[in-house]
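Suppose you are handed a protein chain with no further information: no name, no annotation, nothing but its sequence. What can you learn? This example shows the usual starting point.
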Amino acid sequence: MAHAADVTSQTVATEAGDARITWHTAKEARLVLAVSHGAGGGIEARDLRALAATLPADGVTVALVEQPWRVAGKKVAPAPKTLDTGWRCVWPALTGPGLPVISGGRSAGARVACRTAAELGAHAVLALGFPLHPPGKPEKSRADELLGAGVPTLVVQGGNDPFGKPAEFPEGDFRLIEVPHGDHGFAVPKRAELTQERALEIITGAVREWIASLG
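A reasonable first move is to predict its three-dimensional structure. Written in structure tokens, the prediction is:
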């Protein structure tokens, strides 16, 4: 896959410790997509890697953001409030190139993006594997965070995500794309008629199409 991007790393001091941005800078960038990881993994997640590899060719710079707890080598994410603080502190660096910024993330990172989008002036929100509820606890819904984003929002959700299957999502002012058979990390079982490569193509294709529609 052609990688039409310069890759650089930037450390950003925040009130929660040092965060790190890995920039995949497009040659003639018109937008920045800033995405953070979930509570159980880092920016090596398959969906984040796929977006960083494909979007720069479309003029979209991808900024992969590592929250301070990951940079510090901790195994457990801090409270949502601390994650929001880290994201707010990184935001000025993300807007540094002077381009509109799409605020995004996977899982816990998607929640942060939704909670802070309106206040930070995000152009839009990309929610990858939005954790609608804890596994097995549909009554503990986080739909209000998603519905309260206040900007154009795309949700990309695995068909078998225990944190919320696509059919469980409420009606609302967001677009939802399903990755058939995908789990919370968009892994698909070997027996599925869908290959892992195709699952990632669905994600990158949906994100590219949505970004193009934002104008």
